[in-house]
Write a structure and sequence with these properties.
By secondary structure, the chain is α/β, with parallel strands linked by helices. It contains twelve helices and eleven strands. It is globular.
Length: about 350
């Protein structure tokens, strides 16, 4: 039996890297009957270990960013750096240089930290991947400790590959989702089919429990998603951005509460396709070449500037409410009683 079949509220508090997903948020979501997640994408292994110890005592999940394929040719990235010089200078920053990056995303150290936490009895019940898939050996290793393996997919092709690798469940992420789109390469164009259509296609391709993710920010859409083929739970991230337990920055809370900007899906946030609140930068640099994680590191000095804000959120961000996570869970699940 999958953990998904044991949730009293079939809602996953999605991992949101960069601050919003905290141990307090993950714990509150799990205590409310769902499954909370820790996000490790932008932290090191030491911080992940600390977060896992803090979340211990409830059943929770951990999300890992898969290693990125290094660029064989940096000329396009160097050209982008040159193109950005004027924007940087007009915003009081020196002309940038192409930053050095860790393409591994700290994968080995974080995977080891997860195993250490599991051995100590404070580890996650689920480990999920974004931007790729675990190796069969890694899947076997997690399974040997009783840890479920989930893989985020955006196409039937990736769903089949994840199933072959031994995944226990798939998080099917649609284009409506906030944050990074979990394509398995930085170069590919994301599948644009709406979440409902994408879920249907994945359900026909594989026989695994599915978690629907993307734009599920109201009780009605959550309940509807749970009626789709194969779906056992709804993954909600944006709905928790204003939760009291979330680590969302004060600046981003203000942007979300003002609700003035539309969301856009673009590489201009980080060099990978991601959905967030449109800014002057995303409007000026709509066509950005694949450049993750270089662009993400490059733009850090500008993140506090409103013209280059980094507020990743889904299409339904205006539905987010500044409430305790337990209340958000109750609200989102209020129409799900007969949906399963």
């Amino acid at each position: 039996m999958s953990i998904l079949d044991t949730l009293s509220t079939p809602i996953v508090a999605a991992p949101m890297a960069g601050g919003p997903s905290t141990p307090a948020l993950a714990s509150a979501a799990s205590r409310a009957g769902g499954l909370g997640f820790l996000a490790s994408g932008s932290i090191d292994a030491g911080r992940l270990a600390s977060d896992m110890r803090e979340a211990a005592g409830v059943r929770y999940g951990v999300n890992l960013f898969c290693p990125q394929q290094p660029y064989g040719d940096l000329s396009a990235l160097e050209g982008l750096v040159g193109d950005l010089a004027g924007f940087f200078e007009s915003h009081g920053q020196p002309a940038p240089a192409l930053p050095a990056v860790d393409y591994t995303m700290g994968w080995d150290a974080k995977f080891a930290a997860v195993l250490d936490a599991v051995r100590e009895g404070v580890g996650p019940a689920v480990v999920s991947s974004t931007f790729g898939v675990f190796s069969p050996h890694e899947v076997d290793c997690l399974h040997s400790y009783g840890v479920e393996v989930w893989v985020t997919v955006t196409s039937e092709r990736d769903a089949v590959a994840a199933a072959r690798a031994g995944a226990d469940a798939l998080v099917v992420q649609g284009p409506e989702a906030g944050g990074h789109r979990s394509t398995w390469t930085v170069q590919e164009e994301p599948d644009a089919r709406p979440l409902r259509e994408l879920v249907g296609a994945v359900a026909r391709a594989v026989d695994l429990p599915l978690v629907a993710a993307g734009g599920l920010s109201t009780p009605g859409v959550v309940a509807e998603a749970l009626t789709w083929p194969g779906v056992r739970a709804a993954s909600c991230g944006t709905a928790f951005l204003l939760a009291r337990e979330a680590g969302t920055s004060a600046a981003n809370r203000s942007l979300l509460e003002r609700a003035e900007a539309e969301t856009v899906s673009t590489r201009a946030f980080s060099g990978r396709y991601a959905r967030g609140l449109a800014t002057a930068f995303t409007r000026e640099y709509r066509e950005v070449p694949p450049s993750y994680p270089h662009l993400n590191a490059l733009l850090k000095p500008l993140r506090s500037d409103p013209d280059c804000a980094y507020c990743l959120a889904g299409e339904g961000y205006r539905e987010a409410k500044p409430l305790p996570a337990a209340d958000i869970m109750e609200l989102l699940g209020s129409l799900t009683g007969n949906a399963r």
